[in-house]
Write a structure and sequence with these properties.
- The protein has a 3-stranded antiparallel sheet with strand order 1-3-2.
- The chain has a domain of 113 residues: Winged helix-like DNA-binding domain superfamily/Winged helix DNA-binding domain (Arc Repressor Mutant, subunit A, Orthogonal Bundle), CATH 1.10.10.
- The protein is globular, with a radius of gyration of 20 Å.
- The protein is mainly alpha-helical.
- 61% of the residues lie in helices and 9% in strands.
- α5 packs across α8.
Length: 183
């Protein structure tokens, strides 16, 4: 049986049994209201645990470049969509507006990004990488990619793509739940 077949036939009970022990979560696991087993087997619990630990790995690797993870997210957002608006960066990088404004100001002063007003709507601020910001992105991307690849090394073939597909569907579900005008 291939690893893909094993993954597709893995039942929920077996998947839950395969999770790391609750003891690995610290001494307060399960003491406050929600049964630890329920939180421990919940998708969003693992999303936040994985994202938090990955961010700590990125922070450690980016420290020599004097870049914080939130700044990396801004660089990545702009590199993916040059001229992106400040509001779009906040959504894409998952950074609250106040923190984003401080990060952008720091990055502008460091010569990594440049702000400009949108010619069609002067209320909209657009962001672009400077040459130095582009070079920094080109330096950091392989580091982030190496970490991402390494963290997924233990997954069966196709599992990462399947998780991406599943999370896109969760995202679409959130879009459907969002009040009109807030999407």
């Amino acid at each position: 049986m291939s690893s893909e077949q094993r993954t597709s036939t893995l039942g929920a009970d077996a998947a839950i049994a395969a999770l790391p022990p609750l003891e690995d979560l610290g001494s307060d696991a399960g003491r406050r209201g929600v049964p630890a087993e329920a939180a421990h087997s919940h998708l969003f619990f693992w999303i936040t645990q994985v994202a938090g630990r990955r961010d700590r790995l990125l922070a450690q690797e980016f420290r020599p470049y004097e870049v914080r993870v939130a700044e990396w997210r801004v660089l990545l957002s702009i590199a993916m969509r040059p001229g992106i608006s400040l509001k779009e960066v906040a959504e894409h990088a998952m950074i609250d507006q106040t923190t984003l404004t401080r990060n952008v100001e720091t990055m502008v002063r460091a010569g990594r990004i440049v702000r400009s007003s949108d010619p069609s709507d002067m209320r909209v601020t657009r962001l672009d990488l400077t040459e130095a910001g582009g070079e920094l992105f080109e330096t950091l991307w392989p580091i982030a990619d190496r970490i991402n690849q390494s963290l997924c090394d233990g997954l069966p073939d196709g599992a990462a793509q399947l998780m991406c597909h599943g999370l896109r569907e969760v995202w679409r579900g959130m879009d459907r739940m969002a009040p009109r005008g807030k999407r």
